[in-house]
Amino acid sequence: MKKKLLTLLLGVVLSTNFIIQANASSNAGWVQASNGSWNYNKADGSKTTGWLQDGKDWYYFWSDGSMATGWVQSNGTWYYLTSNGTMATDTVVNGYYVNSTGAYTTRPNGNIYTGAEIKEKVRSLGFFDGKYGGLILNPNGTNGLAQNDYLDFSVWNDSRDMNLTILNTNSEVDKKIRTIFNWILPTQGNTLYSIGDDQNCKSQTLELDGRTVTIDVQQRFMSITFGPIK
Q1: Beta-sheet pairing, 91-93 with 135-137
Q2: Are residues 163 and 138 in the same domain?
């Protein structure tokens, strides 16, 4: 009787273990999250982070398990992930060459600028220090009235890395805006400029060059916030 009972208990344990393993295995592989992002689950059900080779293709996953697209920096080297997540190799991406290993070999001035570095470059465009820590572009310089300000550029240390507020504009100011966008977004600055230049542009959030870019369109101004590179 005891032997029979032990056999039954062992069978239950093995059966339960099999079910757990089967459930974990059924959730392995590519899974699309409710927000539309893609994850790749391991056999135990946990999410893959970092690099993953699936067949002949390489993919990269952020720390939250979501699949990356656009430019990604890994161990000091930049790689480009296409819109479907595959790593680009031996091709030119928006004017920048990535070699057979996926690593870029040429890039504007050889680097991606930090917020502090971009702030100094923005200053060279004729901006001056404002009252609240940002940089202001005004046709009359420091003596100009606030209502005549063209642009207001700021850098933060929290989750919002940089912000450019567009108050007034003309053809010359537009050139400066495009320049700033291309400093912040080395491969997709022109894309952002085209979106913002559209008279039907609405408030929206975008993912460009590894940054979350938030466009806030108001009646009298447009505010564009650039998150840190992920």
Answers
A1: unpaired
A2: yes
Cβ contacts of 171 within 8 Å, gap of 6 or more: none
Instruction: Please tell me the distance from the alpha carbon of residue 88 to that of residue 6, in angstroms, as a whole number.
Output: 57
Q: Are residues 187 and 132 in the same domain?
A: yes
On whether the CB atoms of residues 165 and 149 are closer than 8 A, the answer is no
Instruction: Look at residue 91 and give its three-state secondary structure.
Output: strand
CA atoms within 13 A on the CB side of 9: 6
Mapping DSSP onto H, E and C, the string for 169-227 reads CCHHHHHHHHHHHHHHCCCCHHHHHHHHHCCCCCCEEEEECCEEEEEEECCCCEEEEEC
pLDDT tens digits for range 102-151: 988 654 444 567 778 889 999 999 999 998 889 999 988 888 888 889 99
Secondary structure of residue 53 in the 3-state scheme: strand
Give the bridge partners for 78, in sequence order.
73
Specify the residue for token string 């697209």: 69
CA separation, residue 175 to residues 23, 34, 170, 180 (Å): 56, 40, 9, 9
Range of the structural domain that residue 53 is part of? 36-106
Amino acid at the residue 196: G
Residue 121 shares a structural domain with residue 97: no
List beta partners, residue 104: 98
Together in a domain, 67 and 120: no
φ/ψ of residue 127, rounded to 5: -75, 155
Q: What is the pTM of this model?
A: 0.54
Q: Are residues 152 and 212 in the same domain?
A: yes
